[in-house]
């Protein structure tokens, strides 16, 4: 139970205007290359760096000191770092270092630097010197950014699925949501944002996520992550096998109205999510009072997430027997599109991505006529008795010349084409799918369990 | 919210035909379900949502149909019976071949008392002769005579079509008829939330009105826009300005208080705003307080309206409501008259009144708010009426949107000096002058001053910027929207733009292409030479650079499509047809703060290797 003193609002829910020490930030190295980092105040030489903690990337080195207390979204220049002894100690590719550094930082973060954060002992910390080599951007954490940058411990639910799921299971400010299993926490972060309507004070009912995970290491990792992210008071994580143990917390009902099951066998967990004692329960249980984990006065919305159709069949069958209605099975297909300029033409420069063939019939005609003209000119000249000139190689002779006046070095500069159109505006704007698409994530089964109107 | 059907709630009735009827449940009225019959609204009020009801036949001495709650076991009986039959090693004799189909695609099956399918109608060859056995008239007649609302008819119909010997060996007493589409008078009551409403509007009403926005898109835009509860309400203190004071007495904008605000451009008639309000916890009237149990007394309120009307705009009658908070509610009241502590409600009950806020009081929360920028002089948010909010009503009963929805025109945002209501200083009058006026003139005076203070607050606070995100679904060119809204976004704020088709979004994305960005920072762009950092942030755009290409990061376009499946024993497959039309696309990016001065691109390149490594870390 994380009902400790009220900590600051999670950076996921309110990041404030600027980056802060000991708080999560997401570094965007390139469009799809994101890296989470817990920023640390410089407290002295760190891991061999005179500038304190440093993130190394292939875009350069970025001391935390250059990323602290800057507006979110800031472009950060790389720094010339003083590796001191460190350069000799490790000499791997900068890319690997970047990853290790980030995780190292996140793990160290809570043990030592939390205490040191306020000391602000800038003494002994070397001022970072800007490097001309590169830059990154620093973004506030959101579930979307976290989902693509989190340390994977399991398969995770990505934004195209969770955005749809949360909409369909009506996860809204004030909702109480049950989730199992927590896995890597991707869905957890998205769902806590959805149900958040303030941190509860003593005894207050506020939007909350009750999450369950039976894998011990994952449970501990998640627990720590949640508190690092300031979400401890909003997510109640329980270490439990929900097939056997169900969803009550300290014997009490979470009173949930939204449920998400990302488990291998949802039908094993479903009987626990009833309004009354399910029929299948053994007679030994009959003595004890049965408590439902659902909100007794609201319809409960569920989504189960299973990759295989056989799981769906069993889940749906169990739902039908347990009184769920409006059972609906969905699969989400998401595609990212890339835009680019399709540049086709004989008179374009030889940039990458330019297709130097005729842009249209007219351009082809012009060239062909040109070739013909040259050819005739050539033919009109006195020959040295070679008769099979008319066969074959029409293209071969004049082709070299025919690519026209704007070839290679005598073409327009990269900055401006002959037509005055800058190269980035040349050609037709097109969209195309990414090279590889996810064609199947999982099947989503939705259902609703109404309440009877008689208090349960 | 949405625990039980409240009086005057908007609901969706799902009919056996699969179609939906959206209407307001006024007490003491009759709801027509068309050919299925009529329901008395009072039988639905107070009942939980999502129950399926069956209209019973009228009792001889009653003039209404009672409702029976159909248990889920009955709703699923056919599927469960099929599953069980499929589970048996030997299918019951005749189960497969003694099947007929009846008229136009109804689905129903007849089971014997062991749960075997005797006749099934929906997916077997249609027996032409059988179809002619009963006329529609006969069906109607049978329907009327039966006690059991349609079931007997269907059973007879089915039997009359079935192989003869079965007919004899199979007595009506033993049959169990399950699930039909056409003749069983069942309906289900669903709440009007954003998901249900949008589905109905898209599939059955007018998809155009909401720009073909599918559920997938509503979810994506909300998440990528990071739209969520933006903090507890912060209200500014009433400046208590006297009527003799002018604009100098208006509250200044306090930037530090402005938090958790989203900027919106909405051409979906308010669906987008509703979806955002739902995500922020400011859509439902009873939000924040569990107002169950206080529904009873409102029942008696005089409500006269056509129970079948489907446009909320047509129905403005609502039960008596408590004192509105801080709206233009009392145009003929003196705002400064503290001598009227008791006001008579329309229900005749005296009501204790809070001191009325002064003209310059600002009713808007500084946090958790939605700011709508619109192109016409009034925003079109008519669909919000389904959630009890009428943006055009000057006399609005309490609603969370009143304090959390701000709207202004593009003119007010970009050229406020040209907007009369913003640029005309407020009227002033000494208390003595005021007292000498007729009440109507006084009312006007106060109304104008209130309006002035509010517009001024909205415009000034919007122009102060620092928004937490921008969300759009607009028919306007998104490039022009971004040109004027990017400067208003806080660093790191997300941008999420929905469009039914991809072209306009591709054009935006092209403004941020790598070649364009590279050219911009190369130092060889004459038009931006010598511009300050601030000027670049407010870059007005030209043909070569419609937008400052360094103001957004992570530009991306995506589309999502939900594919629906039928899950039945032995017959699980994707649906054969679904709604076509616009797929819907979402453009996403983050506002960034470019470093001042020249920044060279990437440094060291150990490229391929690192890239594949980091990608390998992400399981496919
Ligand atoms: C695919 S992962 C969930 C991923 C998660 N939804 C996310 O987005 O990160 C499934 C998790 O369920 C857990 N799990 C499996 N069976 C369980 C059970 N019976 N009780 C609790 N957790 C269980 C597994 O340990 C695993 O971590």
Automatic annotation (TrEMBL), chain A:
Q: Which residues form the tRNA (adenine(58)-N(1))-methyltransferase catalytic subunit TRM61 C-terminal domain?
A: 134-448
- Feature: compositional bias, Low complexity: 113-122
Query: What class does this enzyme belong to in the EC scheme?
Result: transferase
Q: Where in the cell is it found?
A: Nucleus
Residues of the region (Disordered) are 79-122, 376-426
Pfam families assigned to the protein according to its UniProt record, in alphabetical order? GCD14 (PF08704)
InterPro entries named in the record? SAM-dependent_MTases_sf, TRM61_C, tRNA_MeTrfase_Gcd14
One annotated GO molecular function is: tRNA (adenine(58)-N1)-methyltransferase activity
GO biological process annotations for this chain's record?
Answer: tRNA methylation
- Function summary: Catalytic subunit of tRNA (adenine-N(1)-)-methyltransferase, which catalyzes the formation of N(1)-methyladenine at position 58 (m1A58) in initiator methionyl-tRNA.
> What PANTHER family is this protein classified in?
TRNA (ADENINE(58)-N(1))-METHYLTRANSFERASE (PTHR12133), TRNA (ADENINE(58)-N(1))-METHYLTRANSFERASE CATALYTIC SUBUNIT TRMT61A (PTHR12133:SF2)
Q: Summarize subunit and interaction data from the UniProt record for this chain.
A: Heterotetramer; composed of two copies of TRM6 and two copies of TRM61.
**Record-given protein name:** tRNA (adenine(58)-N(1))-methyltransferase catalytic subunit TRM61
> Which organism was this protein described from?
Staphylotrichum longicolle
From TrEMBL, chain B:
Region annotation (Disordered) ranges: 288-362
Q: Where, by residue number, does the polypeptide cross the bilayer?
A: none
UniProt entry tagged with the keyword Endoplasmic reticulum: no
Q: Which UniProt keywords apply?
A: Nucleus, tRNA processing
Indicate where this protein is primarily found. Answer: nucleus
Task: Return the InterPro entries for the record.
Answer: TRM6
GO BP annotations, alphabetical order:
tRNA methylation
| GO CC annotation | nucleus; tRNA (m1A) methyltransferase complex
Localisation per UniProt entry = Nucleus
Q: What family, per the record?
A: Belongs to the TRM6/GCD10 family.
According to UniProt, the name of this protein is tRNA (adenine(58)-N(1))-methyltransferase non-catalytic subunit TRM6
List the source organism: Staphylotrichum longicolle
């Amino acid at each position: 139970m994380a009902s400790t003193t009220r900590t600051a609002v999670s950076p996921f829910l309110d990041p404030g205007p600027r980056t802060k020490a000991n708080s999560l930030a997401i570094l965007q190295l390139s469009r799809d290359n994101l890296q989470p980092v817990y920023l640390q105040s410089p407290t002295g030489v760190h891991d061999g760096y005179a500038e304190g903690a440093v993130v190394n990337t292939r875009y350069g080195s970025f001391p935390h000191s250059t990323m602290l207390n800057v507006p979110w979204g800031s472009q950060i220049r790389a720094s010339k770092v003083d590796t001191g002894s460190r350069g000799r100690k490790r000499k791997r590719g900068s890319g690997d270092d970047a990853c290790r550094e980030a995780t190292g930082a996140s793990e160290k973060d809570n043990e030592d630097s939390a205490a040191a954060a306020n000391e602000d002992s800038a003494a002994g910390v070397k001022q970072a010197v800007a490097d001309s080599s590169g830059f990154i951007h620093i973004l506030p954490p959101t579930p979307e950014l976290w989902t693509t940058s989190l340390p994977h411990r399991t398969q995770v639910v990505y934004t195209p699925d969770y955005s749809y799921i949360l909409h369909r299971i009506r996860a809204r400010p004030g909702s109480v949501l049950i989730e199992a299993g927590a896995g890597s926490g991707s869905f957890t972060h998205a769902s806590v944002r959805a149900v958040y309507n303030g941190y509860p004070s003593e005894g207050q009912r506020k939007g909350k996520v009750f999450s369950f995970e039976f894998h011990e290491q994952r449970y501990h990792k998640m627990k720590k992550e949640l508190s690092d992210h300031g979400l401890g008071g909003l997510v109640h994580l329980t270490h439990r096998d929900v097939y056997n143990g169900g969803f009550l917390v300290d014997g009490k009902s979470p009173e949930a109205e939204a449920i998400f099951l990302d488990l291998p066998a949802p039908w094993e967990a479903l009987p626990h999510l009833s309004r009354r004692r399910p029929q299948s329960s053994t007679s030994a249980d009959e003595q004890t009072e049965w408590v439902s984990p659902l909100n007794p006065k609201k319809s409960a919305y569920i989504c189960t997430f299973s990759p295989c159709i056989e799981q769906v069949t069993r889940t749906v069958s169990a739902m039908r027997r347990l009184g769920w209605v409006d059972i609906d099975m969905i699969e989400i297909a998401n595609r990212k599109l890339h835009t680019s300029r399709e540049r086709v033409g004989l008179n374009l420069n030889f940039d990458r991505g330019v297709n130097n063939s005729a842009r249209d019939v007219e351009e082809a005609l012009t060239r062909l006529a040109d070739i013909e003209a040259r050819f005739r000119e050539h033919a009109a000249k006195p020959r040295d008795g070679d008769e099979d000139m008319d066969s074959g190689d029409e293209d071969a002779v004049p082709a070299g010349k025919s690519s026209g006046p704007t070839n290679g070095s005598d073409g327009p500069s990269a900055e401006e084409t002959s037509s005055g159109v800058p190269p980035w505006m040349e050609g037709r704007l097109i969209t195309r799918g990414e090279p590889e698409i996810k064609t199947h994530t999982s099947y989503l089964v939705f259902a609703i369990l109404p309440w009877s109107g008689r208090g349960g | 919210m949405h625990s039980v059907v409240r009086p005057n709630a908007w609901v969706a009735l799902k009919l056996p035909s699969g179609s939906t009827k959206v209407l307001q449940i006024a007490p003491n009225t009759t709801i027509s379900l068309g050919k299925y019959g009529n329901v008395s609204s009072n039988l639905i009020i107070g009942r939980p949502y999502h129950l399926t009801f069956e209209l019973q036949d009228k009792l001889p001495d009653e003039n209404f149909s009672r409702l029976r709650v159909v248990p889920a076991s009955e709703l699923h009986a056919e599927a469960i019976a099929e599953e069980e039959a499929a589970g048996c090693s030997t299918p019951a004799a005749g189960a497969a071949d003694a099947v007929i189909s009846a008229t136009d695609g109804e689905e129903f099956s007849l089971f014997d008392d062991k749960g075997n399918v005797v006749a099934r109608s929906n997916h077997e060859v249609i027996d032409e002769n059988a179809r002619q056995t009963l006329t529609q008239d006969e069906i109607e007649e049978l329907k009327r005579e039966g006690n059991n609302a349609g079931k007997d008819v269907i059973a007879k119909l089915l039997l009359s079509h079935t192989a003869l010997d079965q007919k004899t060996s199979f007595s009506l007493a033993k049959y169990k008829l399950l699930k039909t589409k056409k003749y069983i008078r069942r309906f289900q009551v669903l709440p009007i939330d954003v998901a249900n409403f949008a589905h109905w509007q898209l599939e059955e009403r007018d998809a155009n009105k909401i720009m073909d926005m599918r559920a997938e898109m509503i979810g994506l835009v909300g998440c990528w826009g990071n739209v969520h509860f933006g903090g507890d309400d912060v209200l500014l203190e009433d400046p208590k300005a006297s009527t003799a004071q002018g604009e100098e007495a208006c509250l200044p904008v306090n930037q530090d208080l402005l938090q958790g605000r989203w900027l919106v451009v909405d051409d979906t008639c308010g669906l987008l705003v509703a979806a955002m309000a739902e995500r922020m916890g400011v859509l439902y009237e009873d939000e924040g307080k569990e107002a169950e149990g206080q529904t009873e007394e409102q029942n008696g309120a005089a409500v006269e309206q056509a129970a079948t009307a489907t446009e909320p705009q047509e129905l403005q009658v609502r039960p008596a409501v408590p004192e509105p908070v801080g709206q233009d509610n009392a145009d003929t009241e003196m705002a400064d008259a503290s001598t009227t502590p008791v006001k008579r409600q329309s229900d005749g009950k005296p009501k204790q009144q809070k001191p009325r806020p002064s003209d310059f009081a600002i009713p808007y929360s500084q946090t958790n708010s939605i700011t709508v920028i619109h192109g016409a002089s009034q925003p079109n948010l008519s669909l919000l009426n389904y959630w009890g909010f009428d943006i055009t009503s000057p006399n609005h009963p309490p609603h969370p949107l009143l304090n959390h929805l701000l709207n202004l025109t593009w003119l007010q945002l970009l050229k406020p000096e040209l907007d009369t209501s913003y640029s005309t200083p407020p009227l002033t009058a000494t208390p003595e002058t005021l007292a000498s006026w007729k009440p109507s003139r006084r009312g006007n005076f106060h109304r104008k001053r209130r309006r002035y203070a509010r517009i001024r607050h909205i415009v000034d606070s919007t122009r102060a910027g620092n928004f937490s995100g921008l969300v759009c679904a607009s028919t306007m060119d998104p490039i022009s929207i971004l040109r004027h809204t990017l400067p208003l976004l806080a660093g790191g704020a997300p941008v999420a733009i929905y469009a039914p088709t991809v072209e306009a979004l591709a054009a935006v994305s092209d403004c941020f292409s790598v070649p364009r960005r590279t050219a911009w920072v190369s130092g060889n762009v004459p038009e931006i030479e010598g511009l300050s950092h601030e000027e670049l942030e407010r870059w007005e755009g030209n043909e070569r650079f419609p937008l400052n290409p360094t103001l957004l990061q992570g530009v991306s376009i995506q589309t999502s499509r939900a594919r629906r499946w039928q899950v039945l024993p032995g017959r699980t497959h994707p649906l054969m047809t679904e709604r076509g039309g616009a797929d819907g696309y979402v453009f996403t990016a983050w506002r960034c703060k470019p470093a001042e001065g020249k920044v060279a691109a990437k440094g060291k390149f150990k490229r391929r290797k690192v890239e594949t490594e980091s990608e390998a870390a992400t399981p496919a």
